[in-house]
Amino acid sequence: MLLKALLLIFYLTVPALVLFICRKTKVFKKIGPVLTLYLLGVFVTNAGLLPSEAITHDNLIKFQNTISEVLVPLALPMMLFGCNFKKFSLGKSLGALGAGVASVVIFVFVGYLIFKDNLGEEGSMMGAALTGQYLGGAANLAAIKQMLGLSTENFVILSTCNLIVSFFYLMFLMGGGVKMARKFVGRQNEKEQNVDIEEYTDENPYKHFGKKKSIIQLVKVLVASIVVMGISVYIGSVVGGEDGISMIALILSITTLSLLLTTWKEVRSWDKSYDAGMYLIYVFCFVMATMADLSSINWNQSLYILLFQAVIIFGSLLLTIVFAKLFHIDSDTAVITSNTLINSPICVPMIAATMKNKDVIVTGITNGLAGYAIGNYIGFLMFSLFGII
User: Is pLDDT at 82 greater than 70 in this prediction?
Assistant: First the structure.
């Protein structure tokens, strides 16, 4: 019992240390906390640093599974509570969002048809998980992994390959992709605007978490998340019946109930909620990495997974730009929407700075939040589609 408690503390505190190192060290700042946590977790478990002699392998796996099964249902409401969809523009934002979502869905389907024979038994799960990933973000990938029962090894491969392909995607946009899109589609505002990235991003979003006001808010966030999770567990158990809790019903219920709660003004005002949920996702990623056994990974299959993701990312960008041309959507709006869906709203200020266009920041962030909200639903629909083709 003491060992499990120490392991839990280890899992909960290591992401904080990694975030600190990433802020203070240039090399790790470039790598980012997610990839750093994956690399560290894989190293810890494959170097035999976990206490495998003091706790049996089966008990360790059960303990790790229990942690991961709790973290995602708890993190999802937290990340959704702070979404203010009343700021969403039904004009150009909605058109660009529709183009971006359709492009992702189409190229997930195309990529799956191309690579499904090389993706293994969990190919349909991977396609669904990547749909969630490229409409929302890491939280959707984690949620769909839990929903469908995707293996830990494939989850780690998907996450790692995504970081690699997304890096080249960003480099392409910043190196000339934005200019190419503007030349092909055209832009409405030719005036350049300097964008201060630091104005829209917080290098350390957790620095005020120890203040009394923040603690009170976080207690409310935690209580609300536990209530949402509890109701969703009940719904999942009713749907699952004798087979146990239906993870599909659980995750979709959590998403739906959380979105309903965002209609409450106080819930939308919880500005620490998203970052608290994101920290739990960091913990989840670290736990998953410590469960990955390198000897069990099919490295040949990993190449096809990498190519699958490259097809989705670059194919959806190209198609979004084509849709922008056809439906008279501004090029900057289209590109920022593709970026926010693929890389989450975190990268919006970076690309807006490349564009020298402040006007697209609100559109990019709101479209990214909308994609996050629908990612789990569409991911499940894609999984159902893959099951019949």
Answer: no
Task: Residue 284: name the closest of 161, 145, 157 by CA.
Answer: 145
Whether 364 is covered by a domain: the verdict is yes
Only one residue has tokens 């989850």, namely 155
Find the helix packing angle between 138-148 and 273-290, rounded to 10°. Answer: 60
Residue 200 lies in a domain: no
What is the maximal distance between C-alpha atoms in the chain? 65
| Spatial distance between the Cα atoms of 305 and 125, rounded to a whole number of angstroms | 12
pLDDT higher than threshold 90 for residue 106? yes
Are the CB atoms for 80 and 373 separated by under 8 Å? yes
Q: How far does the chain reach from its first CA to its final CA, in angstroms?
A: 47
Domain total of the chain: 1
Amino acid at 287: V
Domain annotation covers residue 93: yes
In a domain, 201, yes or no: no
Residue 338 and residue 134: Cα distance in Å, rounded?
9
Look up the domain containing 306 and give its range: 2-51+61-187+210-386
For residue range 263-316, list pLDDT tens digits in order. Answer: 888 998 898 998 999 899 999 989 988 887 777 777 788 999 999 999 999 999
CA-wise closest residue to 146 among 233, 69, 261: 69
C-alpha to C-alpha distances, 128 to 248, 250, 375, nearest whole angstrom = 12, 17, 9
Per the prediction, the chain carries an average pLDDT of: 88
In whole angstroms, give the CA distance from residue 264 to residue 373. Answer: 16
Burial state string for 307-339 with b = 16 or more CB within 10 A and e = fewer than 16 = bbbbbbbbbbbbbbbebbeeeebbbbbbbbbbb
Residue 132 C-beta-side C-alpha neighbours within 13 Å: 30
CA 98 → CA 103, 198, 338, 371, distances in Å?
8, 29, 11, 10
